[in-house]
Amino acid sequence: MLDGFLALYIFMLAAFTGYEIISRVPVILHTPLMSGSNFIHGIVLVGAMIALGHARTPFEMGIGFIGVLLGAGNAAGGYVVTERMLEMFKSSKPGKGNGEAK
């Protein structure tokens, strides 16, 4: 019982700390921050795959499969969002800043 409360306490503390840190990031740094978080999502995905590989019961396998599914979706979605953010920095005028001749 104590382990559950300790895990919940650590989760709540990490969520609060993460929210406070992310809310103070300047707008110009959001794209590099997203790229870094995509790296972390990849590590989470590998961890979920390892956990699924060590699963023995159907319940553990189900939870592991859901973890892999959500981790993969999170990583892929992060790259899509980062790409869309980078598109906002490109010039919309032809011949200006994109290497085309004027």
UniProtKB/TrEMBL annotation:
It is found in: Cell inner membrane. It is a multi-pass membrane protein. Pfam families: PNTB_4TM. It is an enzyme of class 7 (translocase). The transhydrogenation between NADH and NADP is coupled to respiration and ATP hydrolysis and functions as a proton pump across the membrane. PANTHER family: NAD(P) TRANSHYDROGENASE, PROTON-TRANSLOCATING NAD(P)(+) TRANSHYDROGENASE. This is proton-translocating NAD(P)(+) transhydrogenase. It comes from the Bacteria.
